[in-house]
Structure formats: C-alpha cells, structure tokens
Design goal:
Blueprint: H1 5-13, E1 16-22, E2 28-38, E3 43-49, H2 53-60, E4 63-70, E5 80-90, H3 101-117, H4 119-124, E6 131-145, E7 148-153
Antiparallel strand pairs: 1-2, 1-4, 2-3, 3-6, 4-5, 5-6, 6-7
InterPro entries: F420H2_bilvrd_red/Heme_oxyg, Pyridox_Oxase_N, Split_barrel_FMN-bd
GO molecular function: coenzyme F420 binding; oxidoreductase activity, acting on the CH-CH group of donors
Keywords: Oxidoreductase
C-alpha cells in the first residue's frame, strides 16, 4: 500500500501546519510551524529554536501531532486536511550552525529543501544559532474532506497499512 494522493498533495502542497505538543502533565500547546514531509522515510521535519515551549515539551513528552489543512470559507464540507501522529526526536541538540560536518551531512538534504521551499522566509530571517532540526517519525495519518475520513498506519519498519 502507498500513501493516498490526497494526503501527499496536502503534505507537499502546503507551507505550514499546526504542531501539538504537551508537557509532562499533558497540558497541550498548539503552534504553527513550517515543515518538510519526506515520503521515502515517512518523516516530517521542522526547525525550531531550542528554547521554545514546543522543544521543552518534546523533551518531556515526545508524542506529537501535526495538522495541515485547507479551509473553504464558503463551504466547510470542502475543508480537507491531514493529521499526522508520531514521535518527535530532536535530531541534534546542538544548533544547526554548530553541528559537526559529518552530522550536518546527514541532514543537508532536509536543510536544503527547507532553504528551497522557504527561501523568502529564510532570506528575511536567517536561521539563528539556537535553531535545531526536529524529526517526527510518523505512526499514523488521517485524511479528511468534509465529513469523510481515511487513515493509514506506518509500522516501525516503514510498512504502510
């Protein structure tokens, strides 16, 4: 089985999603993030400041959810989106600019995709010395259009069911 095209179109065609993290007492925190979806590895990546609330939450509770949606202001039955659930990993606890060259090489493709997709944002606000890469290992994805839903699960070995 493969990821349905409807999900891929939303994950590749949109620039930001809403990440939900929670702290050790399960207090939720939802904020927008720029993201990159990698279909081959079934991972989502985003960059954040290492001092942010979402990073503090991930360190306490790595279970996260991110929602990417398209809203129709005239007809909510045309709304569609993808919710992704998974486990967040801070790929390196060092800021991006201070990563050793061999580690940076592992994430160079993701970083270059960020630079390409978000060029205007990065030109206006370059990544700071406290920015880190966060990786979400996807466990489940749910797609909806209006009241209709479909979901896929991803096993630890990457098999889609």
């Amino acid at each position: 089985m493969r990821i349905p095209d409807e999900m891929l179109n939303i994950l590749y065609g949109n620039y930001f999603g809403y990440i939900c993290t929670s702290d050790r007492i399960d207090q939720p925190h939802v904020v927008p993030v720029f993201f990159i979806y990698d279909e081959q590895s079934q991972k989502i990546f985003f960059i954040s400041n290492d001092k942010s609330k979402k990073i503090k939450n991930i360190l306490e509770n790595p279970n996260v959810s991110i929602t990417v949606d398209i809203r129709d202001p005239l007809n909510p039955f045309n709304n569609e989106g993808v919710m992704v659930q998974g486990t967040a990993i801070i790929t390196e606890k060092e800021p991006i600019y201070f990563l050793p060259e061999e580690t940076l090489q592992l994430y160079r493709d993701i970083y270059m995709e960020f630079k390409s997709k978000y060029q205007s944002v990065i030109e206006n606000k370059p990544l700071g010395e406290n920015d880190i890469i966060v990786q979400i290992n996807i466990r489940k994805m749910v797609y909806w259009r209006g009241p209709h839903f479909k979901s896929v699960r991803i096993s630890r070995d990457g098999e889609i069911t």
